[in-house]
Structures are given as structure tokens and as C-alpha cells.
Design brief:
single chain; alpha+beta; five-stranded mixed beta barrel; five-stranded mixed beta sheet; 15 helices; 17 strands; 31% helix; elongated
């Protein structure tokens, strides 16, 4: 029968598999117009680094053009953690400008200049002009970007280093706020030039491994970290206990990673390989910007185990002895797939896209008839609440719900289901008194209600309350404790006093 679904499910798999680097969507977000921002990951990164900010009304206004004064602040912050107060003015139109200190700092660093004694702080800048500033900030030869042909040199170098990325078509256009974030974010990942040797070859700033250091690491001590998310505020693939606070944990690292609330509560990240930009501290790792999903990872979410079995039978994917299974983020085995019912889902993750499933994450909806960590099922607790509501309405003290009585009542319901009978005397365990004694439950007086065929707590309670004998047990002043057991449509109540 599994093979009947194979052709259809192969189509489902092809449609569902997710490939490619993606920024995690955190719409519960930083700015009121967050959903209008195309380059969310870049805006988030620069916001976290303190390079850009929004407006007083909470907006970012991504399509607004950026001014020369605004970019002076960004470039100055890229260059230095502190910007000294300007001692003099190089231009006639900046003395009272809010960005005066940033402008003078960038002028001193040889990155900004004016014309005819003016700076024109409120003029917009073009994509090419911003690229020129960023190339100079990276330490490239500023003389290359002066005089005739400067624009061609800027465009060539910006494209070679990836500052323009794949989106810049016309560098002569004014740069918008979000486009500026894209260019700056790309520049942050470029290596920093320390000097040029006698042959004109660039000598880069090197890290401890003697590799060229990016501007992001050089200026902010932030580096990329890649690994599998094994825990966040939703679940923990290690021990099942979610992390407290705005944290996630990446496999292979000792300390947790501090993220935004939205990222910490993103269920889709569990089990996924992500890259985060991180600064390491003594007790935690600070993440800047948004996690990005790994490009060479495949994943699909399926509505039932049948779809997964069909895909495996068809040969589109395979599992191995190394495949790990989780049910609601608790370590399990393949049998958890057999527990799935309509409404559940299963996510498969292939970290290397090699056709072997690494993780199988089964999400089981709450089962109203299955006991949980409280020792009772939600359905049983609903009946208990209704019992005490009836007692309160009749001026009686509430009964105490006991887990051992629920276990005994559930055992009686299970026995009626398995042996296909409906009676107060069990062919397996005998009478109520005999069952209580066998279970070691002490009592002075006891009573039992049973029912079959009712799907909800409200329905079975209505039936019991409309029956004189059952109603008498529920409202008896002789009882002080009780239990409720439910199995496959069969209900049992035990009362003792």
C-alpha cells in the first residue's frame, strides 16, 4: 500500500525540499515597517552593531535615500568605537550640523571631502559614492578612486569584492537606506588591507590562523559560526527541556547564544544548520543579525508517516543507523512515526543533501486521552473539573483527584475495552473492592461509575448527572477523593472516602 503513494509523494518532496541560504524570518520585529524591508538580514546586522537605527516613530523607511551626513556617521562608526569632538570646521556648511563630529573624523581619515569649501550634508549620495567610501575604509588604495576613471575603478573593485553583490545594476543612482545596509554588510565581510608592499600587492590584516581578517572581525570582533541548532526556547534535542530566555544552542559549542526573542522562539530552527555572526563573551555568545540557513541542507515537512514511508520506498531518500528520531523534541526511535494521527507532522532534515536523512522530527499534537507528566490525561482532568463544579453548585466540598485512583480507573476502562464487556465486575480483576485491595489503595467506602460511547467530558458528565445512581456517587458526602480513567471511548470513575 505504501507504494501507491510513491509517485505523488515524490512530487511533494520535490516541492517541499528547501535549499539555499535564507535569513530566518523574524517578523515580530525591530521596526514598524519591517515587512517592507527587502534586505532584512543586513538591516538587522547593522542595527545590532549600532551602525544604523530607525526613526522616532519606530519606522526604518527602507526606501528613503541616505544623506552625506548620515553616511558620515556610519563610516565613522565603522572606523572607530569613539569619535572625538571636532576642534575645527573644514566646511562652511557643517558647523551647526548634527553630524559635524562624524564628518570631520571622516575627513581626517581621508574618506570624505567636499567641494568649494562646502560639504553639502543634506545631499543624497549615490551607490558608487558609498562604494568608494567603503573601499577606502577597507584600506584599499584611495588614489585609485581619484581623478579620471575613478568611477570605473570603484565599480570594478566593488564588484570584485562583492560589495555590489548581485543586485546593483546602476551605481549612479542614489542609494536607499536598505541598499546602503546591503553594501555595508557586504563590505563588512571583506578583508582589511593593512598596507601595500613594494610591488603594490595588498598585505592583509591576519587573524590568529594567519587568514585575512574581515572588517567585521577587525572592528567588532564578530565572526561567523556554523552549526546545528539543538536547543532554543521551544525545545531541546539534548534533554527535552527548552532553554529559558532569548537563547539558542548550537551543537559543538559550550555556551549558549544570545538572540532576539523571535529567533529564540522560532520552532523551525531546531535541527537546522545555521550560520550566525557572533561575538564571544565569558558566559554567552552574542549573535548579531539574523541566523541564515545553510545552503547545502535539505528539509521537508510531511503531513503523515505514510508520505515518508512512500518516499523511502521509492528511493528518493534513505535512513541509516545514524538517523536520529525525536517526538516533540524528545529523543525517540522510529516507532514514534506509528503514533502519528491526522494533524501531526514529520520534518526530515538532510544536513549534507546526500540523500540520507539525519534527523526525523515528529510533532505530535496533544492527545486528550493520553496521560501526560501530571499522570492524567486532559480529558480525565476535564471530567474531574466538571465533577467538582457540580459539587460546588450543590454546596458540597470538592473531591481530591488522586493519580493512583486515575491509574486504577484507567486500568478498569482498558480491561473493558480489551475484553469487550461493560460491567462493574471485571472478569480479570473482580469487583471494585478487589481491585482497590489489589492496588493497595486504602478506603472506608467506595463507589464506581462507568460509561461507554461518549466522546467528550461534557457528554459523559451530562449522562451521569441524568442517571440517579451515578449522580448519587458524584454528589455523595461520603467521598473525599476520586479518580477518572478514559480509554478508547470507555470511562470509569472511582470514588473513595
Amino acid at each position: 500500500m505504501r507504494r501507491i503513494f510513491a509517485g505523488f509523494l515524490t512530487i511533494v518532496l520535490v516541492v517541499s525540499l528547501v535549499l539555499g541560504v535564507q535569513a530566518v524570518d523574524v517578523a515580530a520585529s525591530r521596526f514598524t515597517d519591517w515587512n517592507q524591508i527587502t534586505y532584512q538580514a543586513e538591516v538587522a546586522m547593522l542595527t545590532d552593531l549600532g551602525l544604523v537605527s530607525g526613526y522616532a516613530d519606530g519606522s526604518f523607511r527602507p526606501y528613503n535615500c541616505i544623506t552625506r551626513a548620515e553616511i558620515a556617521k556610519v563610516i565613522a562608526t565603522l572606523l572607530s568605537e569613539t569619535v572625538p569632538a571636532a576642534e575645527a570646521d573644514s566646511f562652511t556648511d557643517t558647523a551647526n550640523n548634527w553630524a559635524r563630529d562624524f564628518i570631520e573624523f571622516c575627513v581626517a581619515e581621508g574618506i570624505l571631502s567636499g567641494t568649494g569649501g562646502t560639504f553639502r550634508p543634506v545631499d543624497y549620495i549615490t551607490i558608487r559614492e558609498l562604494a568608494k567610501m567603503l573601499l577606502t575604509t577597507l584600506g584599499l588604495d584611495a588614489g585609485r578612486y581619484q581623478g579620471a576613471g575613478w568611477d570605473e575603478h570603484v565599480d570594478a573593485d566593488a564588484r570584485e569584492l562583492g560589495i555590489y553583490g548581485d543586485v546593483v545594476e546602476d551605481p549612479s543612482l542614489y542609494v536607499t537606506r536598505e541598499e546602503a545596509c546591503l553594501l555595508i554588510s557586504n563590505a563588512l565581510r571583506c578583508p582589511v588591507v593593512e598596507a601595500y608592499d613594494d610591488d603594490g600587492e595588498a598585505q592583509y590584516v591576519l587573524d590568529d590562523l594567519m587568514s585575512p581578517m574581515s572588517l567585521l572581525e577587525y572592528r567588532f570582533d564578530v565572526i561567523p559560526v556554523t552549526g546545528v541548532v539543538v536547543a532554543n526556547a521551544i525545545g531541546d534535542l539534548r534533554d527535552g527541556v527548552p532553554l529559558e530566555g532569548s537563547l539558542l544552542h548550537i551543537d559543538g559549542y559550550t555556551r549558549d547564544f544570545l538572540v532576539t526573542d523571535a529567533v529564540a522562539q522560532d520552532e523551525s530552527l531546531l535541527g537546522r544548520t545555521v550560520t550566525v555572526y557572533t561575538r564571544f563573551y565569558s558566559d554567552f555568545n552574542q549573535v548579531y543579525g539574523l541566523p541564515s540557513l545553510q545552503s547545502d541542507e535539505s528539509t521537508a515537512t510531511l503531513p503523515s508517516a505514510r508520505e515518508l514511508y512512500a518516499i523511502l520506498d521509492y528511493g528518493a531518500l534513505r535512513v541509516s543507523d545514524e538517523t536520529q528520531y525525536y517526538a516533540n523534541y524528545q529523543l525517540a526511535d522510529a516507532s514514534c512515526l506509528d503514533e502519528m494521527i491526522p494533524g501531526d507532522s514529520v520534518t526530515i532534515i538532510d544536513h549534507e543533501s546526500d540523500g540520507t536523512v539525519d534527523l526525523v522530527l515528529v510533532q505530535l499534537l496533544p492527545r486528550p486521552d493520553v496521560p501526560d507528566e501530571q499522570g492524567t490525561s486532559p480529558l480525565e482532568r476535564q471530567v474531574a473539573e466538571l465533577v467538582n463544579a457540580e459539587r460546588e453548585a450543590n454546596g458540597l466540598e470538592p473531591l481530591t483527584l488522586r493519580v493512583d485512583l486515575c491509574e486504577g480507573a484507567r486500568l478498569k476502562s482498558q480491561d473493558m475495552v480489551e475484553n469487550d464487556y461493560f460491567n462493574h465486575t471485571s472478569p480479570t480483576y473482580g469487583t471494585l473492592s478487589e481491585m482497590l485491595e489489589e492496588l493497595g489503595i486504602e478506603y472506608r467506602t467506595a463507589g464506581e461509575n462507568i460509561a461507554s460511547g461518549y466522546e467528550t467530558a461534557e457528554a459523559v458528565m451530562e449522562a451521569w448527572m441524568n442517571s440517579e445512581g451515578h449522580r448519587a456517587n458524584i454528589l455523595s458526602e461520603d467521598f473525599t477523593e476520586f479518580g477518572v480513567g478514559y480509554v478508547d471511548g470507555v470511562w470509569t470513575q472511582w470514588f473513595i472516602g
